[in-house]
Amino acid sequence: MLRVLAVDLGASSARVACVDIDAHPVSIEILRRFEHRPVRHGDGALRWEWDRITREVLLGLEAGIHTGPVASIGIDAWGVDYGLLDADGALLSAPYCYRDDRTAGWRDIVDRLGGEELYRETGIQLMRINTIFQLAAHDRSELARARHLLMLPELFVYGLTGALMGERTSAGTTSLVDIRTGDWSASLLRAIGVDRTIMPRIHQATAYAGMWRGVPVHLVGGHDTASAVAALPSSGPGVAFVSSGTWMLVGTEVDEPDTSDAAMRANFSNEAGVFDNVRFLKNVMGLWMLEQCRTQWGDPPLQELLREAEALPAGGAQVDATDARFLAPEDMEAEVRGAAHLPTTAGRAAVARCILDSLAAAAASVVRELEMLRDQRMTEVCVVGGGARNELLNRLIAEECGVPVTTGPVEATVLGNALVQGVALGKFETLRDARSSMAAAERG
Questions:
Q1: Can you name the residues that pair with 77 across neighbouring β-strands?
Q2: Among 91, 114, 175, 352, which is least packed by CB within 10 angstroms?
Q3: Percentage of residues in the chain with pLDDT exceeding 70?
Q4: Residue 43 bears catalytic tag
């Protein structure tokens, strides 16, 4: 038995899991799961309830160490958001949520820096949520008091161990890392008025961070998508992935970044993989759209809503599921209805079907772009994450793409997190070995 604790902080729900990576198949026990959302502060800022998130995770970790020996702990979280620490190591304020509207003027920053130059240096899809635009808009007086900046996975690692570390995949979401050197871009930090000295040294996953309650803490793929992709049951040329959850990340694994004119025009991201490869992908809004509507509708059971949507004929209204208008509208249902020109007589099932059809169409569009950019036919689409349970959406993606859709682990992020800890502990020599071991175990 080799038990590790995997903390997966999603942008709407989080979990602490105990994973036995010696078991065949791997055993995953969710110790604590909780939902959370950003809250509006008195100054109008949209921020995360970091204190509450921390308390909930610590309860999960405590449960883990009290139920048996634990060999390691790893933390992953959503990308782009960060915390600032003062000279005493205290958090200056609750971390901002990437959906806060302070980045509304992000295109002015792009124009000043040069969009083409920015893409060539970082290889990251231009989106208003990127850390570079958040920091450019950050309060200057608070930024002047900051002595350390940590992305959220490593902010939690710091809380456990006191280690001030960066990690390759979470740093890579910032649009502040030089994609060729793998280090922070001094010129970009200078251009947005951020002192280079507050940025942590970037380490690769498996690095040892310290101890918590006598348990080693290792860096994993800090960006949750990186951890999810680490658990893909199949990978390689011709395999596209969809990490399906609050966001949908559609892409493929490649050996080298692509910052060509065509990739830039298509607005693809070259996100660092857990080890040496690159996740070549694009963001689609994801099931956040449907979940926001469900909340407005009084949280009807998801399966009931999906049955209603499936009963409607194909070929209905669609919206552009990559449009920033769906990032943080006050009224998601109204936003979808307006974009799709749905009449008020159309019920909630029509709105839900519109969202699902739109997500499937957007995923298929990205797959077709991948085929063009990679000059290679995609023969399989593998869906992992919570959205892998959504059979209707998976079927719609298959129909739109015209290729088979397979589903991987629902708890892909937790599993990928744990597999990387297995590499850190010497259980597996490489991630490829870890994936092969999992596939062999499933074949039995």
A1: 9, 223
A2: 114
A3: 99
A4: no
